[in-house]
Design a protein that fits this description.
This protein has one domain (about 1-235): Lipoprotein localisation LolA/LolB/LppX (outer membrane lipoprotein receptor (LolB), chain A, Clam). Strands 6-5-4-3-2-1-13-12-11-10-9-8-7 form a 13-stranded antiparallel beta sheet, covered by helices on one side. The N and C termini lie far apart (about 80 Å). About 15% of the residues are buried. It contains four helices and 13 strands. The chain has helices at about 1-20, 25-35, 35-40, 110-120, and strands spanning about 45-55, 60-65, 70-80, 80-85, 90-95, 105, 135-145, 145-155, 160-165, 170-180, 185-200, 200-210, 220-225. It is of the alpha+beta class.
């Protein structure tokens, strides 16, 4: 019984300690542990290269390029062909070559929401107030044996994220996402890991995603993340239509 009482006291102490922190204190601890705001702001471009492992074990080569402010290009290469999704800060487009298509076309609603999420160069915990995000303390939990401090992030468009931060290092290890797509709520889970420094900024090299409740997991493993590489603006712009 004494052991049980001590365990309850310890667990209660963790919860009190976490809840006693303000949202800004938690966010500041995150910023400090990933390298500091100066290191983050010093990065102007990122180029990620690696592989995608899908259901059934098939693999594809992936590339993601980000550039301030909020431009992103993602490539997915399989069977000698490369699909492209891109957003230049104003409009999103794609090229899907599998059915012989070579021309760019506009992104669909759900695709565009995903690209807008990926285009947020610093992530939602940096300058969240100026972005119009609302962040609330969402309690404590455990994920795969690790104690977490949780933050609920609501974006102006209604998308809701729950960030599970490692209670010791304040690094996000899991993200739950809720968004409305054509009036229906969709839920996703993302697991982050293998953090390494890139120009002094700790970033995840392993990202696993799935629709909540589904066993069909998809994993992206980056072999390399480069900072401040030269990336031309035209990489993100809609290609000109070919002359008839």
């Amino acid at each position: 019984m004494c052991r049980l009482i001590r365990a309850v006291v310890l667990l209660t102490g963790v919860a009190i300690s976490a809840s006693a922190q303000t949202v800004d204190q938690i966010v500041n601890n995150y910023l400090k542990n990933v390298g500091g705001i100066d290191k983050i702001k010093s990065v102007k471009t990122l180029r990620r290269t690696g592989k995608f492992v899908g259901g059934g074990g098939f693999e594809a080569i992936v590339l993601q390029e980000n550039k301030r402010s909020n431009a992103v290009r993602e490539e997915f290469s399989l069977l000698g062909m490369t699909a492209i999704n891109a957003y230049d800060g104003k409009a999103g487009w794609k090229i899907i070559p599998w059915n012989g298509k070579k021309d760019a076309e506009s992104l669909g609603e759900e695709e565009l929401k995903g690209m807008l999420e990926d285009s947020d160069f610093d992530g939602p915990l940096v300058d969240y107030q100026s972005k119009g995000y609302k962040i609330e303390f969402a309690g404590t939990d455990k994920f795969e044996g690790t104690d977490t401090i949780n933050l609920k992030i609501t974006k102006p468009n209604g998308d809701v994220y729950t960030y599970y931060l490692d209670s010791e290092f304040y690094l996000p290890i899991k993200i739950d996402t809720k968004r409305l797509v054509r009036g229906a709520e969709r839920e996703y889970e993302t697991v982050l890991g293998d953090y390494k420094p890139v120009a002094g900024w700790y970033l995840p090299f392993s990202i696993e995603t799935n629709v909540k409740g589904s066993q069909d997991r998809q994993k992206t493993i980056y072999d390399s993340i480069e900072a401040n590489v030269e990336i031309a603006d035209k990489r993100f712009s809609l290609p000109a239509s070919p002359t008839p």
